[in-house]
Amino acid sequence: GPTDWRRHLPKSDRCVVLQKGCLPDSKGGQASAACYRGQCKKEIQRCMEEITVDEVMRAIETLAESVKTA
Length: 70
Fold this sequence. Notes:
Blueprint: H1 5-8, H2 46-49, H3 53-68
């Protein structure tokens, strides 16, 4: 979601963070990925929608493999 993973991530080494930043704001600056808005003001919710199924699957596979070898 639109939150800061450093604030909300469980204290575990068995976690994966997938993060995409927001589109640049109207002044050309880069908006934070952690906007904490209940509703996105952007047409595209990049922080969530640009995370692909393949990225999620790779993260799951990597995490599962690391758990096997631990």
